[in-house]
């Protein structure tokens, strides 16, 4: 019997490989066309060297096709090209490649190697890039967590992920709860930056710089293919409960996915990309990586402030960046004379995502800075799914754009059936960059899937031009008097009110209706808002069930660090 099962298994494996080869062969023409177009449009054709091609071939042959390979390719092919600028320090691809090797080898010497998970808790800084790629290079996984996390949250993530080490910024050591952290983590705490006199009872603290100067450690050990082991584990924000660890592997066709994205955008090899969103989040890390795929320069800002953003654009001649909508609003809120102080003419592409981009905000920003806003939809779990160009945002305000090549989107109702054209359904997507699932949570993984399609609970509709529009979260849908009410529709209407700058709509329990609509609004600077005028404005544009019964004026909406409105807090708020 064992031999029979073995033969069957081998036969199934052969058939699976044959099917995969056939699919690859069918994709070859598309891959070639896309590759040729991208090489020309991005300028890659002029920058490729024999050394970089050789390193790429070697890496793929060894099964090391993950983001760390980029730094080997550019580190050998164009070692003197600037890779990253952080806190005024400039580092080349060659220098960064060598540092990644040393960190990987030193971690392996401490028993943190292949298949090990390393928690990273830092503000925006270059070391996040180094540790992430060191783990990928040796077949380990990095687990990112917000630097604002509490001791309890850190302990949960470290324990739940099965981590073997922690890399933490010195001034965050107060978040360590030695009673709750696993012993394996306490034995390997690496401290980045200054931590004068730091001492955590029961923890072995090692300065991060020691990983780079611990003798002649050389390159990390060659252990064969690591593509099935290395991963990035991103814990979701946990706005509705305990966070879930989204496990992202690095599939063989990830490069093709990047090429398809480049084919839809004006990105180039000479771009200078500004990182302002938190690097522990997928938006910042993903767009930084896309820039590095092209061998671009990355400038890391340790935090965002609106005037500092403009100053950085002028100083570094920034060409691309990725932001959340609240950042665009804060830039626009600067006095015109402040905005005029800075030369931002180098800025060609501003990607906006992570939260809904209000239509008036997109138009206002483009009117002020030019048609450079690209609105994207995606998630930690799905990667990039749709993209709206500046022309799309002008023609169909509020759109998240059309499906990016390689994405198969389905809008499904509660019975998992395709909805009719123009109707709202839960957005499910299938692509090559879906996560493996949620770490240690097979139930959550299963509930998020229909076949090979994955959903994070967003509701959307599609117009006749193939453009998609978000209608909110499935859990946020309001049922008032038996009518399905989508908060995003109400928000998009109220955002057009001349006295309002921010809007969030939630459902509140109601004895007669089941739920009633409550709108939380923020007034524009220098304006006052009368709740009755907001209701009148809504009543002229929305049907009865959608008109807010309550309008609450706030000084600001509660948001998490990545810009998402915390609607749970609004629902629980006493007014």
Description of the molecule:
- By secondary structure, this protein is α/β, with parallel strands linked by helices.
- 36% of the residues lie in helices and 23% in strands.
- The chain contains 20 helices and 28 strands.
- A 9-stranded mixed sheet has the order 2-1-11-10-12-13-14-15-16, sandwiched between helices. It has an 8-stranded mixed sheet with strand order 7-6-5-3-4-8-9-19, sandwiched between helices.
- Helix 1 packs parallel to helix 10, helix 12 packs across helix 13 and helix 13 (325-332) packs across helix 15 (359-369).
Summary keywords:
alpha/beta; single chain; globular; GMP Synthetase, Chain A, domain 3; nine-stranded mixed sheet; 575 residues; 23% strand; 3 domains; Rossmann fold; eight-stranded mixed sheet; disordered N terminus
Mean pLDDT: 87
Query: How many domains, as an integer?
Result: 3
Proportion in helices: 25-40%
Query: How would the global form be characterised?
Result: globular
Question: What order do the strands of the largest sheet run in, or round the barrel if closed?
Answer: 2-1-11-10-12-13-14-15-16
Q: Count the strands?
A: 28
Any idea of the CATH topology of the largest domain?
Rossmann fold
- CATH architecture descriptor of the largest domain: 3-Layer(aba) Sandwich
Number of helices: 20
Largest sheet, described in full? 9 strands, mixed
CATH superfamily of the largest domain: ANL, N-terminal domain
Radius of gyration: 25 Å
* Estimated share of beta-strand residues: 15-25%
**Span between termini:** 69 Å
* Helix/strand class: alpha/beta
